[in-house]
Specification:
With about 500 residues, this protein is mostly helical. About 70% of the residues lie in helices and about 0% in strands.
Length: about 500
């Protein structure tokens, strides 16, 4: 018992107990360091990363041309901005994070439901983004060595990953570790510099593609062959895909809105950062995909693929230099987005589950360790699978966001009793029934259910569903939110 006691004391965090530590209590003034630059850069890097670039270009595969794909992005950005600001007001006002607010919504003990769902999402996103970061590492290494670029694959075809991809993935995970040691209140500097580097990288690639082809290509204005009904629903699907690619940042945005110097910094910074970068980056991706398909007849959805295309076709010093600097910028962007958007966010969630032993830094390292079982390389087999994976997140997260917004604005009228968020007994007003708010959990699950058949069909088209269910899935970001919000409001009125 003496040894166990010493281990327990060694692992226990200073000033912590079973309900709180310094990372999940309301953020003190000396840690509120994010201004306009922090929030503009946060959303800039969320949009500037290769995943978002790919989502914009991938919309061309569902029957939309470039102009209409950009239209869905503009509408999607408006919805993302609106949802983000509304969902994070409590963090901006009370300086508490997503995981603590789960105690208000689902109860002191029921909070584990919301936190675990979001933690799983963090692991999936971190694994996915890290795999893409490994591909960017390979671009840098391939610009150094032609033999590395042409490395023989020693894995069988059944393994959806090459030897080169494995090496890049491992190297990327290793260089990620130092970035996870940076406290979130100081991460705005990393976000600002990585956003600038990635923007100029994307601009350079786009200029090259247009110059190489002599124009933006025909995909920008290809005639629409869909029926008017199908065209409308593809617009809905495009908006849903864009929204879903950013929904992780919507759900837990209070984790970062709580670091604001002033609330206006968060509101205006989010609006500017998401609107500008959210328009420019998918435009880069769509123009490049259109120009290169017309010039070379190839489909290149990600900027790192374009860099590898340079090297494979012309291993000249100029192409190698371009690939190297592009690869470095893309690796930097992945480090920033993986750190702040996934690992650190997941660390915040885990610190609420075990606050006595886990803080943000330890939680981020746990997220890093959990990436291997996720097998993220399976997400990138094709653009259609990629969109399906992105769209799946909104099916589960959107109903939860609807419950959060209804609880805070309609039920609680924007009033939170902070002290009761840290009481693990019936003395807390957030105790509900044995510490669990069952109506919140049940309605979140019921709100997700109608979108599941569409998700299953999108992942496996052999499984047939009715047209109505399919259309519901295309517009799930609206339909699920409205139905879940209405159900929770009605139930809360009946059972106060």
């Amino acid at each position: 018992m003496g040894l166990l006691h010493r281990i327990d004391k060694f692992l226990e965090l200073d000033g912590s107990n079973n309900m709180q530590n310094k990372d999940i209590v309301p953020i003190p003034i000396n840690r509120r360091k994010w201004g306009y630059t922090g929030y503009i850069s946060y959303w800039a890097i969320m949009n500037l990363c290769p995943v978002t670039w790919s989502v914009g270009a991938s919309l061309l595969t569902v029957g939309l041309n470039g102009a209409h794909a950009m239209g869905t992005v503009v509408v999607g950005n408006f919805i993302v901005c609106l949802a983000t600001i509304i969902a994070a007001v409590y963090g901006s006002n009370y300086h508490i994070g997503f995981s603590v607010f789960q105690r208000v919504v689902f109860g002191i003990r029921g909070a584990y439901y919301g936190v675990l769902v979001r933690s799983i999402l963090s692991v999936v996103w971190f694994a996915s983004q890290s795999y893409l970061g490994g591909l960017c590492v390979n671009l840098v290494l391939s610009s150094w060595s032609k033999s590395y670029m042409n490395m023989k694959n020693h894995f069988p075809d059944s393994v959806k990953m090459t030897s080169q991809e494995l090496i890049g993935y491992v190297i990327y995970l290793i260089i990620t570790v130092p970035s996870l040691m940076v406290p979130p209140e100081y991460y705005d500097y990393i976000l600002a510099t990585s956003s600038a580097a990635t923007f100029f990288c994307g601009l350079g690639i786009t200029i090259w593609a247009v110059k190489e082809n002599g124009g933006s290509g025909t995909l920008m204005n290809t005639p629409i062959t869909l029926s008017s009904s199908d065209f409308g629903w593809m617009w809905m699907y495009g908006i849903n895909s864009w929204y879903s690619s950013l929904v992780a940042g919507i759900a837990n945005q209070s984790d970062f809105s709580r670091f604001n110097k002033k609330p206006i910094h968060f509101y205006l910074g989010t609006l500017i950062g998401n609107t500008l970068s959210g328009f420019i980056v998918p435009l880069f991706g769509i123009i490049c995909a259109s120009a290169l398909e017309e010039k070379y007849g190839v489909e290149l959805w990600k900027p790192n693929d374009i860099g590898m295309f340079w090297l494979q076709n012309d291993y000249s010093p100029s192409r190698r230099a371009g690939a190297f600097f592009s690869g470095v910028a893309l690796v930097y962007s992945q480090l920033a987005i993986c750190g702040i958007g996934n690992a650190i966010s997941g660390g915040m969630d885990l610190s609420t589950i075990f606050p006595r032993y886990i803080n943000i830094r330890r939680g981020a390292m746990i997220i890093l360790i959990l990436v291997w079982p996720t097998q993220p390389w399976l997400f990138y087999n094709s653009s259609s699978v990629f969109i399906s994976v992105m769209s799946s997140f909104s099916v589960f997260v959107t109903p939860m966001v609807a419950v959060y917004i209804c609880e805070y604005f309609l039920v609680r009228r924007c009033i939170i009793k902070l002290s009761d968020c840290y009481i693990n007994s019936s003395k807390s007003i957030y105790w509900y029934h044995q510490g669990i708010n069952w109506k919140g959990i049940v309605i979140s699950i019921l709100g997700s259910a109608p979108g599941l058949p569409g998700l299953i069909n999108a992942a496996n088209p052999k499984i047939k569903i009715s047209r109505g269910i399919e259309n519901f899935y295309y517009g799930s970001f609206i339909f699920q939110f409205v139905t879940t919000f209405a159900m929770y409001a009605i139930v809360s009125f009946i059972w106060k």
